[in-house]
Amino acid sequence: MASIGALKFFLYLLPCLLNYLPHSQGKQNWNGEYPFIRRGSSLEHSENGGYDYIIVGGGTAGCPLAATLSKKFKVLVLERGGVPFNNPNVTFLRNFHITLADTSPTSASQYFISTDGVLNARGRVLGGGSSINAGFYTRANPRFIRKVGWDTKLVNESYPWVEKQVVHRPNFSHWQRAVRDGLLDAGVSPFNGFTYDHKYGTKVGGTIFDRFGRRHTAAELLASGNPKKLTVLVHATVQKIVFDTTGKKPKAIGVIFKDENGKQHQAFLGTGRQSEVIVSSGAIGTPQLLLLSGIGPREELQKFNIPVVLHNEFVGKGMADNPMNTIFVPSKRPVQQSLIETVGITNLGVYIETSCGFGQSKDSIHCHHGILSAEIGQLSTIPPKQRSREAVEAFVKSKKDIPIEAFRGGFILSKVANPWSTGELRLINTNVEENPAVTFNYFSHPYDLKRCVEGIRLAIKVVQSQHVTNYTMCDRQSAEKMLNISVQANINLIPKHANDTKSMEQFCRDSVITIWHYHGGCHVGKVVNSEYKVLGVDRLRVVDGSTFSESPGTNPQATVMMMGRYMGLKILRDRLGKLGDI
């Protein structure tokens, strides 16, 4: 059985790991529903001025923000990636992991590794993170809404606007049912049924995948905009923000961007005092762009010969990523692919989620998909260009004893909520298309490590529950054996230790990965004010997760999309009063 499994493994693994056929973002055939989406090179000279709002980044927040503002004002969105609509790797749930495995320059996902040694990804496509994530949709904890000072009435108007357009009820697979029941047996109660709300206990949340497994991203929210006032340019990479520094305070007046051919363009705001450049490039892209534009620590900017527009020591500081650790669950029963549908919201400061079936895709079996993979172990840490046939063959030989059960099954995910450990983002060079250096300092604070241990213990209880063992048709395993399998399945660049399966703390440190919920770098009160306007600069605002000091709820995408709508409505009402109602 093992030798057959190894042979199948090799046949499917080889083309993927040798990176022969990287997936691209497809031909740009615009849907008739989005006539305002064009290539970056299509901007006419006569069009490049007079915008009321220039939004840098057509991502999870930028798309709803643009759609809302365009109801009353002329809006330009500049997105560095392509469109998601005709990219099967983005669109279909079954291909979720292929985009994350694609490290080519045209991938919808831009791969990066934090200095901690954890593999990570950022969106490089219209729709941003909502085009490459696991699709789970759940609202923020009400405490988060109060903490950030948002208007609850407007929040409760903005969430449903998103939900009516792109959110669905999951199919709810048998695997998810087994884990749900295992969570309840482990004491994560009560069962709150299907709900978008953040409630302690076990629940089923929403998803942006419909019942046919088709993804609905934030990009679809653009259809709610006014096509006569909205222009969206794709493959338009903003190089820097342009400022007028002749007055008492620097004032944003436009941006410089490159199109798909590498040609440089400028786009300018109109002369109106309330016109703004709004940066919605995410927790990596936004602080990086501010730094490249001359806003940040003076010493760092001068090191790269970047003219200092405004000294602010806090740009790029306070970066955090919710550490995630996993328990691998082998299965003798083939499982249907499913992403996050069930979540256990505990009072321990951890969230428990699950996914399964992504070792069985015929199109992409055993590809590294950015989280972890029992099937490929550490081979994914070899850069694609160094993946020789010899390396692959040596790996297959070393794994010949892997049981067939390892090619099935799934993972129980334990995520630490609101990490106290923080790091920073720093420039490596002045190329906006390359990743900056990002450090998250996972588990540098002992409270995070304590919660990780509690989460892993809870995850083990779930895996050992009769509901899960009955479904997987596998015997109940000891905690040590589960940890051992999970360490082997884990993918990161952190050196492993002999006591990984003896010490829960060491297991947490050595097997930490990400669920892409990183945030910070432009915190309120340090880089932006409570209205998200950049401190010390006129006509510049930030609207995205870089302003967050914690990730909202179990999964942030619902709140980031809602934030785009919320801030759009708030800007309209602040600027137009009752005339701003839409």
TrEMBL record:
<feature type="binding site">
    <location>
        <begin position="79"/>
        <end position="80"/>
    </location>
    <ligand>
        <name>FAD</name>
    </ligand>
</feature>
<feature type="binding site">
    <location>
        <begin position="556"/>
        <end position="557"/>
    </location>
    <ligand>
        <name>FAD</name>
    </ligand>
</feature>
<dbReference type="Pfam" id="PF05199">
    <property type="entry name" value="GMC_oxred_C"/>
</dbReference>
<dbReference type="InterPro" id="IPR000172">
    <property type="entry name" value="GMC_OxRdtase_N"/>
</dbReference>
<feature type="binding site">
    <location>
        <begin position="516"/>
        <end position="517"/>
    </location>
    <ligand>
        <name>FAD</name>
    </ligand>
</feature>
<dbReference type="InterPro" id="IPR012132">
    <property type="entry name" value="GMC_OxRdtase"/>
</dbReference>
<dbReference type="InterPro" id="IPR036188">
    <property type="entry name" value="FAD/NAD-bd_sf"/>
</dbReference>
<comment type="similarity">
    <text>Belongs to the GMC oxidoreductase family.</text>
</comment>
<dbReference type="InterPro" id="IPR051871">
    <property type="entry name" value="GMC_Oxidoreductase-Related"/>
</dbReference>
<feature type="binding site">
    <location>
        <position position="545"/>
    </location>
    <ligand>
        <name>FAD</name>
    </ligand>
</feature>
<feature type="binding site">
    <location>
        <position position="238"/>
    </location>
    <ligand>
        <name>FAD</name>
    </ligand>
</feature>
<keyword id="KW-0732">Signal</keyword>
<keyword id="KW-0274">FAD</keyword>
<dbReference type="Pfam" id="PF00732">
    <property type="entry name" value="GMC_oxred_N"/>
</dbReference>
<protein>
    <submittedName>
        <fullName>Protein HOTHEAD</fullName>
    </submittedName>
</protein>
<dbReference type="GO" id="GO:0016614">
    <property type="term" value="F:oxidoreductase activity, acting on CH-OH group of donors"/>
</dbReference>
<feature type="signal peptide">
    <location>
        <begin position="1"/>
        <end position="26"/>
    </location>
</feature>
<keyword id="KW-0285">Flavoprotein</keyword>
<feature type="disulfide bond">
    <location>
        <begin position="452"/>
        <end position="508"/>
    </location>
</feature>
<feature type="binding site">
    <location>
        <position position="125"/>
    </location>
    <ligand>
        <name>FAD</name>
    </ligand>
</feature>
<feature type="domain" description="Glucose-methanol-choline oxidoreductase N-terminal">
    <location>
        <begin position="282"/>
        <end position="296"/>
    </location>
</feature>
<keyword id="KW-1015">Disulfide bond</keyword>
<dbReference type="InterPro" id="IPR007867">
    <property type="entry name" value="GMC_OxRtase_C"/>
</dbReference>
<dbReference type="GO" id="GO:0050660">
    <property type="term" value="F:flavin adenine dinucleotide binding"/>
</dbReference>
